[in-house]
From TrEMBL:
Coiled-coil regions, chain positions: none
Domain VHS span(s) in chain numbering: 1-117
GO CC field: endosome; membrane
Domain of life: Eukaryota
GO biological process, one term: signal transduction
Organism listed in the record: Hydatigena taeniaeformis (Feline tapeworm)
An example Gene Ontology molecular-function term: clathrin binding
Name of the protein: VHS domain-containing protein
Residues making up the signal peptide according to the UniProt record: none
Length: 146
């Protein structure tokens, strides 16, 4: 099934018409992600394409909604092993998190006054080591990396 970019861009334009547009869009997108998780991977794939198009075309108000902790939590839920997402879907979600959401969260935190160490400071830190009991307590989804 081909993507109808005309419709995607019309959606992007419509989101900017009202102050509540980005918030309402994220609410609908979150509902689609959570209701389709584990059931309709194709629907999630097209939803991710829409998210990426909106990130590129809808401006800061939409980007701020995507950087929201609740949205990120819903996106990560799709990756849970119980939903058995295909590798392509996992890769797309992880790409969105790394390329789009990570920098948005970084920028939002900087605006709130959080000061991050520069990369040189980080390189001089000793590597972190964890005991098995600490790793066992985490609830991070187990995602195979190829």
């Amino acid at each position: 099934m081909a993507i109808d970019w005309t419709i995607v861009l019309e959606i992007c334009d419509a989101l900017g018409e009202t102050d509540e547009g980005p918030k309402e869009a994220i609410r609908a997108i979150r509902k689609r992600l959570t209701s389709s998780a584990g059931k309709d991977h194709i629907s999630i794939w097209y939803t991710l394409i829409l998210i990426e198009a909106c990130l590129k075309n809808c401006g800061r108000r939409f980007q701020a909604q995507v950087a929201n902790r609740d949205f990120l939590h819903d996106l990560i839920k799709v990756l849970l092993p119980k939903h058995n997402p295909p590798i392509q879907l996992q890769t797309k979600i992880l790409f969105l998190i790394k390329v789009w959401i990570g920098p948005l969260v970084y920028t939002a935190l900087r605006r709130k006054g959080v000061q991050f160490p520069n990369s040189i400071d980080c390189k001089t830190l000793p590597p972190l080591t964890f005991t098995y009991s600490i790793l066992k307590m985490t609830s991070t989804p187990k995602i195979p990396i190829n």
